[in-house]
Design goal:
The protein is built from eleven helices and ten strands. It is an alpha+beta fold. The protein folds into three domains: about 110 residues, Acyl-CoA dehydrogenase/oxidase, N-terminal domain (Butyryl-Coa Dehydrogenase, subunit A, domain 1), CATH 1.10.540; about 110 residues, Beta Barrel (Butyryl-CoA Dehydrogenase, subunit A, domain 2), CATH 2.40.110; about 140 residues, Up-down Bundle (Butyryl-CoA Dehydrogenase, subunit A, domain 3), CATH 1.20.140.10. A hairpin with a 2-residue loop joins strand 9 and strand 10. This is Acyl-CoA dehydrogenase. It catalyses: a 2,3-saturated acyl-CoA + A = a 2,3-dehydroacyl-CoA + AH2. It holds the Pfam family Acyl-CoA_dh_1.
């Protein structure tokens, strides 16, 4: 096995590290306080052809692989998790369903503007009464003579305020047996009946856009069905597998950022006449943090590699997301502990990482759901 990054992956890592340090990091704390969306950062990423990083060049993408996408998400999240999740959701939840299940006409019409940064990507799955139980979707779509009429609502949807269209799931009925099924649709956000609100007062990820979407008899053309009628449930399971790699990478980035702050502080903080980094209890904390981050990163890359090889990666996606998210929580907790009382103060940044990390244990399927998936995949 070769664990060395390719030349292209190393170039992307270098680019994203420099971009994150120079463009993303300086305003991260202020955005956390104000909730301001990182418009300028997204525009600059579009100019660097990053918004379609791992999609074919024929659709305006960068032609890179999933490992490169994971590297990009990690580097952004290392300095600003709000920017990291904005980008991750755009790629894995916004672009991916259209690329994977869209017709060639849909790809040209919708994927190209996503890859070029003309629109942000969003995916409407979660509902007030359908979170972990996504099969319990209550949003409905009724087929009429010349259109579909959609009625319902979605919640906790990333990027929708800045999306010109989004993919979403709705309950439909089979014409053959009238049984309930789930179908995916592409819905423009600027048409009659679509209302988007962003009023959540969140624990963390303050400058990411998290929305509620209301659909009141929204009429869309019949050719806006994404994939096959009735296959929406299977399609979003595939979509979420890819999304979990993004969340895993985000968690690694958060953990890495918190670890670096803790290591720097430990070297500078003097107690009992010497740097606290010389105290074995602190050394062991930092050693454990470094170890777990390395393990989490390696498994994120493994899941990404399997995806790139067109191999089954459902179990690995859940493992990397579950492990990395719990590593992020542990690392951020210890980073605060190493900082002592200062870790509780906003100016020292680690409390932001701690707050941001929690979402990685919830988004794209909770830790409990990941354990269910892993148990199923190992034959339990």
């Amino acid at each position: 096995m070769n664990f060395e990054l390719t030349k292209e992956q190393s170039m992307i890592q270098k680019l994203m590290r420099e971009f994150s340090e120079e463009e993303v990091k300086p305003g991260a704390d202020q955005r956390d306080q104000t909730g301001e969306f990182p418009h300028d950062i997204i525009r600059k990423m579009a100019k660097l052809s990053l918004m379609g990083l791992n999609f074919p060049e024929s659709y305006g993408g960068g032609g890179a692989d999933t490992i490169s996408f994971a590297i990009a998400v990690e580097e952004l999240s290392r300095v600003c998790a709000s920017t990291g999740i904005t980008y991750s959701a755009h790629i894995s939840l916004g672009c991916a369903p259209i690329y994977l299940f869209g017709t060639e006409e849909q790809r040209k019409r919708y994927l190209i503007p996503l890859c070029t940064g003309d629109s942000l990507g969003a995916f409407g799955l979660t509902e007030p009464n359908a979170g972990s139980d996504a099969a319990g979707t209550q949003t409905t779509a009724v087929e009429n003579e010349d259109n579909w009429s959609i009625q319902g609502s979605k919640c906790f949807i990333t990027n929708a305020s800045h999306a010109k269209f989004l993919s979403l799931t709705a309950s439909t009925h089979s014409k053959t047996n009238n049984q309930r099924q789930i179908t995916a649709f592409i819905v423009p956000t600027g048409i009659a009946g679509v209302s988007i609100q962003s009023n959540y007062n969140k624990l963390g990820l303050k400058s990411s856009n998290t929305t509620e979407i209301y659909l009141e008899q929204v009429k869309i053309p019949k050719d806006n069905v994404l994939g096959e009628i009735g296959n929406g449930f299977k399609q979003f399971l595939v979509t979420l597998d890819g999304g979990r790699i993004g969340i895993g990478a985000m968690a690694v980035g958060i953990a890495q950022g918190a670890y670096e702050l803790a290591l720097q502080y430990a070297k500078e903080r003097v107690q009992f006449g010497k740097s606290i980094s010389k105290l074995q209890v602190i050394q062991h904390k930092l050693a454990d943090m470094a170890m777990e981050i390395e393990l989490a990163r390696t498994y994120v890359y493994k899941a990404a590699w399997l995806k790139d090889q067109d191999k089954k990666f459902t179990k690995e996606a859940s493992i990397c997301k579950l492990f990395a998210s719990e590593v992020a929580r542990r690392v951020c907790n210890q980073a605060i502990q190493i900082h002592g009382g200062w870790g509780y103060i906003h100016d020292y940044k680690v409390e932001r990482y701690f707050r941001d990390a929690k979402l990685t244990e919830i988004g794209e399927g909770t830790s409990e759901i990941q354990r269910n998936i892993i148990a199923r995949e190992i034959g339990c």
